[in-house]
Amino acid sequence: MRADRLVSLVLLLRQRGRLTADALARELEVSTRTVLRDIEALSAAGVPVYAERGRHGGFALLPGFRTELTGLNHDEALALLAAGSGRGEQVFGLGPALASARRKVVDALPESHRATANDAAQRFLVEPETDLLSRRAVTEELPGTTMPAVRRAVLAGQKLRIHYAATDQAPRWRTVDPIGLVTVRDRTYLLATRSGADRTYRLSRVLAAEDLPEPAERPNRVDLARIWRQRCARFLSDGHLTVLVRVRPARREDLLNTAVAVRAEEPDADGRLRLEVTFQDSRHAEWALWQLGTDAEALAPPSLRTALRDRATAIAARYEDSPRG
């Protein structure tokens, strides 16, 4: 909404001082032309914003200007709640609302505490793009055009129509009764029912969404954590391969990064770990265990041990002689 954007623009100028139109446009995620129109609207409303020309110019507020602009709207309050559970700027498509809410919170602080709060915020970094091994985190992009409709349907208890691209299927429209949203490992899921049957949808595969006026068929209260556990258990028992593995502790995370889930884990006699993990199928399990070389050993099922042995034998035979040619 434009009113929220105008408030954010004033707060940016109050907290950072002089900013160019391009810098404001990046912060507010709008065009430079929109920023210039907003500046004109603020001036017409009596907000003392002025322009400075030149190489280091930009827009600024007259010193000492202050007004009460700290009221949070619905999405901003929701963003702050979501931010407490992880990478808030990535959760449920609430990044712009979260940035605006943070500006309002900082502006509400006494001036003597504002600099301290800004300094403290710079000393915390949650979930950077890469880990210490320079491995880039894989974050799914949520379609910004679909998230508002999904959120509205979930929170208002209305039916939702989604254009969904399931794996190996052509996209098609579905009408569902939304229950809740879950984010885990930078993937976001919509828990819903369709014709009374449980359904779980990856939001990155929702190509379009429409919230409908009809009320959703769902209970008034929900235990989302319990529902998620039940659906995870059902997913793991549906056509997956269970493997018993011995692995060096140093390679445990590498194993877990390729497995679908861990069912059991205990230390082994020689200092290794014994884990019961699940993979999508035998091909997936063979590929994952091969990546770990001699740091891991598949103990069961026998068919997987045979497949790994045959692959190792073929590789050894290929490199037994000098290169051909």
Automatic annotation (TrEMBL):
Q: Pfam families attached here?
A: HTH_11, WCX, WYL
- Keyword match DNA-binding: yes
Question: Which InterPro entries does the UniProt record give?
Answer: CBASS_pafABC_assoc_protein (IPR051534), DeoR_HTH (IPR001034), HTH_11 (IPR013196), PafC-like (IPR028349), WCX_dom (IPR057727), WH-like_DNA-bd_sf (IPR036388), WH_DNA-bd_sf (IPR036390), WYL_dom (IPR026881)
Q: Which UniProt keywords apply?
A: DNA-binding, Transcription, Transcription regulation
Q: Which residues form the HTH deoR-type domain?
A: 2-61
Q: Which PANTHER family match?
A: PROTEIN PAFC, PTHR34580
Recorded protein name is: DNA-binding transcriptional regulator
